[in-house]
Amino acid sequence: MSQPDRLQVPGGLLLWMNAWFSSVFFMSMFSAELEEAAELLSADPGASTLSLASSGPAGSTRVDLEDEDDFGQESSELLGGEKQTSGFWTFEYYQSFFNVDTVQVLDRIKGSVMPLPGRNFIRHHIRNNPDLYGPFWICATLVFSVAISGNLSTFLSEQGDPRYHYRPQFHKVSIAAVVVFLYAWLVPLAMWGFLTWRQGTERQTGGYSFLETVCVYGYSLFIYIPTSVLWIIPFEWLRWLLIVVAMVISGSVLVITFWPVVCDDTKAAAFTTVAIIMLLHALLAIGCKLYFFQTAVHAVPVIPTAAPNRTTATQQDH
Amino acid sequence: MTDSRGAVCGDGAFPSGTLAFAGLSDVSISEDIPVEGDISVPVGSQNVDDVFSTLDEPVKDTILRDLRAVGKKFIHVMYPKQSSALLRDWDLWGPLLLCVTLALMLQGGSADSKEDGGPQFAEVFVIIWFGSVIITLNSKLLGGTISFFQSLCVLGYCILPLTVAMVVCRLVLLGFTGTISFIIRLIVVTASFSWSVFASTAFLADSQPANRKALVVYPIFLFYFVIGWMVLTFSPSQ
């Protein structure tokens, strides 16, 4: 039994490093689509930010439109140029994905925790500047918070048992890492591929680029971090209540983001897509809860069930 | 002869010192000026070593020199101030020594466990080295100016307080049991974890852009938190 243990963590870490590198590979493979989508998207927010900013009379608004459009075109070319001129083998290519400040990251986290029906997370918060910092470190924090909280809750629930000897259960970290990182990279890849396929040739009300999808999924996982810490409290009803609340908040961020893109499609496809998004998210939450936060039902020793048998047997005897 | 500004240059070849640049274009040098003197490149420490190669000295001296450098850096970590010695002469001996010591001391706990044991030796190694690499990549991607190996060196050396805490924890576990030992260990690990974070931030914070400091410090916090968790949850086999 000890041999597989020793291979488990290196295997698990190799798996998620593989997921990381394979997603980078996919990004480079789809870089053509990325650039197109980026340029099309960058044309849009120019108009949307305008509607928020400009409040003058129609004449000046039109003038502003042209100026902003030029500036938007310039900046979109610059942004597109940044992602075009440096190939994926240069360091600057990856540096462009980390172009965020502390304030921006905090603002995005706030937006993922408080979803409002009108605010599309991608349009409102990401605004054509997707980053990889948030998704990666939120996933890493989630991995350790789930593993550590699971360990603590097992310790607290089995504390009364005199035969229980505390174990750090370190192998759960590797399992959590594989699960969380696979979810955070493969599901956005599948979602982006599916949406791009359904969009077909019409990309005006554009779909989202792969990075923006990864961004949304990464930031939507943030609510699970405080939830997993609160799961230490050993009340079942509280845990299920927390799951429901977290799924509602995080799922609504995803649905609000993807609904405008999907609602152009047929009704059946739209509802199926939304249902699958919510289902996968729910599976992640419930799976984490069931695996890492096992209640002490199994630890109750066999003695109580044997005792009634013995007493009934003795009663029957007598 | 006068230069373009109208001032009088010196006779002969040398233009006047204060207007040297202004008038140089108009100055024609009539004689060849012999240049004298030595041009010597300032000799760095490597040249000294080349002249006196380490093959000529006893092995004890070579080893002691490296050990003294490592020891000096340990002192810099324990009393972190704005010195650049850790950054300038980086080496990875210290981090390797600390990593191996920590991983060895985390063994021998719950040895009878089949599955739910503490971290294996390889797990500790992987966490420390992969964690340092990822944090360094993160700070470089966010625009930090520190070099790759300097950052690895700083992060590795700042594990020293946690290694000291591990030694203290093992001693406490020999002497005390139960809640008292847990409270003592918790206090020691918390103190050393905050010392590690403070020390590494003192060395690394200056090389980051001002509006992204928190983004760089948070992964370091997470890294030392995980190592502190491994130290705290070490439970000896019964």
Automatic annotation (TrEMBL), chain A:
CC annotations in GO: Golgi membrane
Bilayer topology: Multi-pass membrane protein
Subcellular location: Golgi apparatus membrane; Golgi apparatus, cis-Golgi network membrane
Keywords: Membrane, Transmembrane, Transmembrane helix
Domain of life of the organism encoding this protein: Eukaryota
UniProt xrefs under InterPro entries: Yip1_dom, Yip5/YIPF1/YIPF2
GO terms classed as biological process: vesicle-mediated transport
Residue ranges of domain Yip1 in the record: 113-286
Transmembrane segments: 12-32, 132-152, 173-195, 207-233, 240-262, 268-292
Molecular-function annotations in GO: small GTPase binding
Cross-referenced Pfam families: Yip1
Recorded family membership: Belongs to the YIP1 family.
Name used for this protein in its record: Protein YIPF
UniProtKB/TrEMBL annotation, chain B:
Keywords: Membrane, Transmembrane, Transmembrane helix
Organism of origin: Denticeps clupeoides (denticle herring)
A single BP term in Gene Ontology: endoplasmic reticulum to Golgi vesicle-mediated transport
PANTHER family, alphabetized: GOLGI MEMBRANE PROTEIN YIP1 (PTHR21236), PROTEIN YIPF6 (PTHR21236:SF1)
Transmembrane segments: 90-109, 121-142, 154-176, 182-204, 216-235
Protein family: Belongs to the YIP1 family.
Gene Ontology CC terms, in alphabetical order: Golgi membrane; trans-Golgi network
Locations listed in the record: Golgi apparatus membrane; Membrane
Gene: YIPF6
Membrane topology: Multi-pass membrane protein
Keyword Transmembrane among UniProt keywords: yes
Annotated protein name in UniProt: Protein YIPF
Domain Yip1 as annotated: residue spans: 78-230
